[in-house]
Amino acid sequence: MDINIVIGGAAGQGLETIAYLLSKSLVRMGYGVRTSRDYMSRVRGGHNFSRLRISADSPMAAAEQIDILVALNEETYDLHRDFLTANGRVIYDPDSFSLPESESRGTPVQLQALAQEAGGAIMSNTVATGAVLVLLGMDTAAAEKLLVEEFTGKEGVAESNIAALKAGYQAASKTCSACFELPAQNRKPASQIFLEGNEALGMAALASGCRFLSAYPMTPSTGIMDYLAGKQGAYDVVVEQAEDEIAAINMALGASYAGVRSMTSTSGGGFALMTEGLSLAGMTETPLVIILSMRPGPATGLPTRTEQGDLDFSLYGGHGEFARAVLSATSLEDAFYRLNKAFDLAEKYQIPVIFLSDQDFADTSRSLAPYDFARLRYDRHLLETWESRPRYQRYTFTENGLSPRAFPGQFPGETVLADSDEHDEDGHIIEDAETRKKMVNKRLARLELLAAEMDEPLHYGAHEPDLLLVGWGSTYGALREAVDILALKGNNVALLHFSDLWPFPAKTLTELLPRVHKSFCVENNATGQLAKLIKGQTGLSLDHHILKYDGRPFLPADIVREVKIHG
Amino acid sequence: MGNPSCRPADYTGQDPSWCPGCGNFNILKALQNALAELQIPPHQALLCSGIGQAAKMPHYMRTNGFNGLHGRALPPAVGARVANINLKVIVTSGDGDTYGEGGNHFIHTIRRNPDLAHFVHNNQIYGLTKGQASPTSEQGMKTKVQPAGVMLPPFPPLSIALTMGAGFVARCFSGEVDHLKEVMKEAISFPGYALVDILQPCVTFNKLNTFAWYKNRVVQLKDHDPADRHEAARLARRWGDEIPIGILYREKNPRATFESQIRALQGEPLVYRPFDPGALQSLQDEFI
Predict the structure, then answer these.
(1) Which CA distances in Å does B181 have to A515, B77, B158, B163?
(2) Model confidence over A398-430: pLDDT tens digits?
(3) Distance from CA of B54 to the nearest CA of A (A)
(4) What is the pTM assigned to this prediction?
(5) Is residue B115 in a domain?
(6) ipTM for this model
(7) Rounded distance, CA B80 to CA B66, Å?
(8) Structurally, how many domains does chain B consist of?
(9) Domain for residue B22, yes or no?
(10) A206 in contact with chain B, both atoms CB, cutoff 8 A
């Protein structure tokens, strides 16, 4: 049986520490864990919560129902009580608020008072963690070890936190001990990693040989910057916080032109400022990876929430016509290798590659088997030797449009000229019609080769389905589970899920779509941007749109409900 | 591979398409001579520019070049320095590009202090778009777009650079080409961000600040101690009948450059370091 925990309260109450201690303890013991964050764009107050799901295997989506609700304030109880299961428990502080008399599921724990006794009210969250552990029938050993790791070097802090942990454990054991049965431990202890999307992307960039990230902090992309910034010094990587996103993309282009793998990361508003530089990457044929971590727009929108609203923008942003690739993050397992592919494609085809993530992917952590770094590709696709010809020309005409790329200083006596104006093979400004036309053709010719590199969508579920769900990006987990639920209820159903989006891989969809009874495009946006892309690229329409644009990620139940209504 | 030669002619690029008499010709000549005298071979120099008549310099020179977007000459230059600290990076662009469209980059690059020389061709007018006011145009100057005269006071690049803490601040005049060349050499050799604001007549569009206008006003600095920051600030404000040219300020003990403060940039340039993804498997240990 899965167990679902929601930990809610105001910003600043230490919710994330509870989620972290619980998740990491469980992961180390061999359980499958998924933890996602729902937070407001404020540093103090408001209502924030984390969802934690425990399964035998790593859960790919969150669930609607709640088994254990850790309510650090009354609002949390009020907002989530309807989703609490009949046998669920509410951990709350009776000194802070009371539950209604009709509520029989309360596990009162004097969070503040016990924390105070242990050494400080700030440790209320650690007390709450202890309470959850006893409900789950776990001991405190793993959490104690984590506290020691966390507070090494801070005298007495680990000890008092351990005291707080044990106090919460004791107090909650009075109402209910081991009242939930944990699922099987399918993994060996200490065999899994547990990380969030932004950490996986940061690590993938570093392991792909990215040596320069210039970016401007913007939620929900900032975690990528945090990760790489922390690796400076120990690894050959430089992170520069630029004065704005315009500088960020132009710095990255300068470094890439000068021969170093470079990247920038941002969200929609920052990407808007970057589109001029995106076009420059297209014109100068300078490789660049841009992680666009989406949040709901327009304008400032909902800064800390999720949306798949910038697919159109990533496809069409930037003036003029040039080649680009657009890939997306679907699952933690896949995104690590796919970002590596983005770096490879950028240099192989000398183009900008936009990698779409979103808040849901960025901030969600899951347990998974360690990555295999030997699978990562590292080929710079650079000109290796230079001889004989009169001079190096950056934009030499070739059959496939790709000119051998060298970097400044690579070959003594040879120079490299990149130009944002239309140019000749040397990179010098021209205006004649013939060269212009040849250069446009040269820059676009690579799209054909690039198209052959795109992965077809992942086909999950029935081979010849009646019902077909189509999605892309971070909704993969929710869609996959929706397919499982629908299949269990006797539906002949499948999912086609896109990771690579441009050039659009149309083959599988074109073959399958005409054979199904009913198709659904499921997107975290208001206008069905993938459906429009499909229509434009294949002429095919999907029967129904399941769209969610309230800033929240899909839960499998959302999708199942809609399919039942329209299926 | 032999040592590439460094004669002025070795830096010759395309034929310039500037108007006859344009002040840019002398700036081009001074830069070619400066690089030759400093013995920086073409493949080890990188010219970054934005857009405008001045920004066409990378085409008229033979060095590496990144002719980027309007206002964006500085950020690619910073990126290139990160990639390869062996490259001599020179940014060469106009007053509109640098002080208008690229104002934010100008301010923050001074703070950042990368080791690059920044040559701003300041003709106090927009040439490429045919004669609108630039950020440094004189108040009251009439143009097609400012028919009643420019309302805004001119942008003071030298004062701003000094206020922001630039370690090297100079002003030159394109009509004094040897003086310009010598200052350029000093700027290129200075460890850190070095600004040279180069007054330059636009013979076609600026009928106010003509060659003669500048020639009658510029005075080479004599007996000025460039380490004197207060005096430099006073000189930076001088404009009118007498305009001082030369090195206004050169920090005696230049502060640490951007590159020197980044651990990963010490030693061999980043671009030449080998890499093996397989060796990084242990990165995920922290997530267990």
Answers:
(1) 74, 21, 19, 26
(2) 999 999 999 999 999 999 999 999 999 999 999
(3) 14
(4) 0.97
(5) yes
(6) 0.98
(7) 10
(8) 1
(9) yes
(10) yes
